[in-house]
Write a structure and sequence with these properties.
This protein has helices at residues 5-23, 31-52, 60-86, 97-107, 154-165, 168-186, 188-194, 206-236, 238-248, 262-275, 297-312, 314-327, 335-346, 357-368, 384-405; strands at residues 112-118, 124-125, 135-141. It is mainly α. The protein has 15 helices and three strands. It is flat. Strands 1-3-2 form a three-stranded mixed sheet, with helices on both faces.
Length: 408
């Protein structure tokens, strides 16, 4: 190892700590950000102190390993610091945080939520982090982060946190393997065309299993994504379907085997809605399109196996979603409550008495789709969407005040 590596590593960490110190002087509307930054500061300082104790007697292998770890740590933590900083931007709707954080605490107790705008158009969540294991970081597209009607998409991201907390990947793995093997045996002639050296007897041995491992990985990922879509419907009701179509219809042209196809995701949302007695948007699935796959022949075949496998466990996923949400006390959509809130919106006033955040957002979508909304107020016509958004956000504020008064 060259002489400069350790000094370079120490300098990089000191620079990061200087940045952290600057961030700690910022105002954070979400207190979880300040707590997270403090944890990062303590972690960096502890590792810096350890590395500063190295001297000429320290084994080069130990120094080299420590420098690798310091670099890995910076690669992991810097994006998180940026995420925390973006959460302070006024493009975020701060009204969301408290009620969504309470929802997260119901579903994944002791976890801390941070919502922020993000420069990805698709909402996403950071994977479980070694450095901040009890944090849920959800990014919404910067262009939509103040749009109350897009909030249900956070339900999908919360689903990923629930999936990890409940160890559902481990639970569903045997089912996915068995379903995939059943699918392969049911399409054996097609399979042998792609993999002629595999026989019924060798299908599950170490060598032959490599032929279907990509299909298993894709199916496992699709199952998690299906769970998260279903979970979004369970906790946000009809509004999840509207928000999903608003942001993603007709779907991306390039097929990603890690996700169900565009139409399959829409069909699954319809199935989830029917299960929970929700009103379906007219011809919902027709809003989505699938384009011809650009995958090679073998990969296309494996992807079709993954698709069928993931679809075969969807009923189990719906059952799991319902059990987890019900046990956590997450109320399903209440149609009467939604109607009452819509009635308030028609009067240009915030709704009151909501018992679930989802009912407020569902009322917002119902009002959005009402062509007669505020037709008697022509001066609102050009600002209709913005006014509706403001009323929904005010209703979320009222909802939070009422929840605090109830001691929730």
């Amino acid at each position: 190892m060259s002489f400069e590596v350790l000094p370079y590593s120490l300098a990089r960490v000191r620079a990061a700590l200087a940045l952290v110190s600057q961030l700690q002087t910022s105002e954070f509307p979400q207190p979880n950000c300040r707590d997270g930054i403090q944890l990062i500061a303590e972690m960096l300082q502890a590792r810096l102190t350890l590395a500063e104790a190295f001297n000429e007697k320290t084994s080069p292998e130990i120094v080299d390993t420590a420098c690798h770890e310091l670099l890995d740590t910076l690669f992991e933590l810097l994006p998180i610091l940026g995420f925390f900083l973006r959460s302070t931007n006024v493009r975020n709707a701060f009204e969301f945080h408290a009620p969504v954080a309470r929802l997260v605490r119901q579903l994944v107790p002791n976890f801390k939520l941070v919502l922020s705008s993000e420069w990805n158009f698709s909402p996403f969540t950071y994977p479980q982090m070694v450095s901040l294991p009890n944090y849920v970081l959800i990014g919404l597209p910067a262009s939509e982060s103040a749009n109350a009607l897009a909030l249900p998409l956070a339900g999908h991201e919360i689903g990923h946190a629930v999936w990890e907390k409940e160890s559902l990947g481990k639970e569903f793995r045997p089912r996915i393997v068995q379903a995939l093997l059943k699918e392969i045996r049911g399409r054996w002639d097609e399979y042998r065309v792609q993999f002629p050296h595999v026989t019924h007897e060798t299908l599950e041995d170490l060598y032959s299993s490599r032929t279907w491992t990509p299909a298993f990985k894709w199916a496992a990922s699709q199952v998690e994504e299906c769970f998260c879509d279903n979970f979004g419907v369970r906790i946000f009701g009809e509004s999840y379907l509207h928000a999903f179509a608003y942001l993603l219809a007709p779907g991306l042209a390039a097929r990603n085997p890690l996700y169900p196809s565009n139409q399959r995701r829409a069909e699954n949302l319809v199935t989830a809605s029917e299960r929970w007695g929700l009103h379906l948007p007219d011809e919902y699935v027709s809003n989505f399109r699938d384009w011809p796959s650009s995958l090679e022949v073998s990969a296309k075949f494996l992807c079709s196996l993954a698709d069928s496998t993931a679809n075969s466990v969807n009923e189990d996923l719906l059952e799991k979603c319902d059990t987890i949400a019900t046990d956590a006390g997450v109320l399903p959509q209440n149609h009467e409550e939604v109607s009452n809130i819509v009635a308030a919106f028609r009067k240009l006033v915030p709704g009151t008495g909501a018992r679930a955040l989802s009912n407020i957002i569902n009322a917002g979508w119902q009002a959005f789709h009402d062509p007669a909304l505020w037709s008697d107020y022509p001066h609102i016509k050009e600002r209709r969407a913005a006014v509706l958004n403001e009323i929904v956000l005010k209703t979320v504020e009222v909802f939070e005040i009422e929840a605090v008064l109830r001691g929730e």
